[in-house]
Amino acid sequence: MKPYLHTSQLLLISLFLVAAVAFSSCKKDLVPKNGQPVVLVAGSESNGEVSVAKYWINGQGVELSDGSSSAFATSIFASGNNVYVAGVDGGEPVYWKNNTEIKLPHISVSPARIYNIFVSGREVYVAGSDDGAVYWKNGKEVRLNSVSRSDARSIFVAGKDVYVATMNFDFSPGVYWKNEDENLLEPVEPALTRVGVNVNSIFVSGSNVYVVGTLGLGDRQVPRYWVNGKINELTERPNSFSTVATSVFVANNDIYIAGHTWAFTDVNGYVKQDALYWKNGEAIYITDNNTPNFASANSIYVSGNDVYLSGNTNTGATYWKNGNEVKLTNGARTSVANAIFVIK
After folding, report:
1. Residue 339: beta bridge partners?
2. φ/ψ (deg, to 5) at 22
3. What is the spatial distance between Cα 281 and Cα 150, in angstroms, rounded to a whole number?
4. 214-242 as b/e, with b when 16 or more CB fall inside 10 Å?
5. Is residue 40 pLDDT above 60, yes or no?
6. What is the dihedral of CA 183, 185, 189, 195, to 10 degrees?
7. Mean pLDDT over residues 129-137, rounded?
8. DSSP H helices in the chain
9. Are 271 and 264 in contact (CB under 8 A)?
10. How many CA atoms lie within 13 A of 167 on its CB side?
11. Cα–Cα distance between 67 and 291 in angstroms, integer?
12. From CA 176, how far away is CA 48, in angstroms rounded?
């Protein structure tokens, strides 16, 4: 005699099978096919009422939040067969592992700020702010300082060492931490020079620690990068009035930095914004200097000879591969692409 299954049991089994197939498909999608890389981009897109956190895998969107409250995906990382995305859902700090949301504990009643995620082995690190610069390791919060107006903007793990780039909003030096040791970025006395140091990204290669960001000089921002705390300039267009460096990646001893720049285009004061990246300090523009546009490069990833950037244009979320644009949405609704990760 065959066992009798209640309708609800059949429904649960069906749902389980659907979920299993979907999960299996996601796993298979992480394997490059025919030599083509897997490109993962994290960001958000409006549903007409609120922002929905999502990521795109080879251009196909995957929604992470349910659309009941605003949510944003700010960073993405792939490890093994798993996709990790960090962000904010309804003002709460979270990360998603294979589309399952994991809430992070926090003490602040203010909306969370989450910037970056990094996975090393079985350890998941998320950098952000919780009434001061913090990072979470496997959901446990690690506080870096007691300054409430400070953020942990980027995190990188090399071996047993945890590196975190932090900043605060009171004309203080930029900082990177190696475990519990604080390292100041030049200039180290911005309170005297009234120079604000904003840091956005950190990368470690061999014995060198690379940090990128900007110096705030009044209303103007100028891009800079630091190697082991020593400051270096990045080239700018002569007509640029402000330029931001957003993300850094080091490959084969070459330093790649993403960013965007603002410039006046005519006497009427029209402002355009172009996306670019620097290779070893020299600027390479990926949007047309002569065409009015609005473009930003928020993240960079280098794989072999290919340079990938994620960002935004007038039509919304996009990424570029070697300067060639791949649109992620149809532009009907507001969208952003905050981070990129490539599997090859």
Report:
1. 42
2. -65, -45
3. 28
4. bbbeeeebbbbbbeebeeeebebeeebeb
5. yes
6. -140
7. 94
8. 7-29, 190-193
9. yes
10. 24
11. 36
12. 39
Question: Rounded to whole angstroms, how far apart are CA atoms 114 and 95?
Answer: 9
- Contact in structure between 168 and 122 (CB atoms under 8 Å): no
- The angle formed by the CA atoms of residues 128, 132 and 137, to the nearest 5 degrees, is 45
Both tokens of 58, joined, read 């080879």
Quick one: tokens of 207? 């014995």
Q: Which residues contact 186 (CB under 8 A, 6 or more apart)?
A: 173, 226, 229, 230, 231
DSSP per residue, 297-310: EEEEEEETTEEEEE
Distance of CA 6 to the CA centre of its chain: 47
Evaluate if pTM is beyond 0.85.
yes
Which candidate, 47, 116, 61, 56, places its Cα nearest to that of 87? 116
For 159, the token pair is: 């071996």
The two tokens of residue 235 are 């080239």
C-alpha 261/C-alpha 241 separation (Å) is: 8
What are 67-126's pLDDT values in tens digits? 999 999 999 999 999 999 999 999 999 999 999 999 999 998 888 899 999 999 999 999
pLDDT (tens digit per residue) in 50-66: 999 999 999 999 999 99
Burial class (CB in 10 A: 0-12, 13-18, 19+), 114: buried
Q: What is the largest CA-CA distance in the chain?
A: 87
Neighbours of 146 (CB within 10 A): 9
pLDDT band at residue 6, thresholds of 50, 70 and 90? Answer: very low
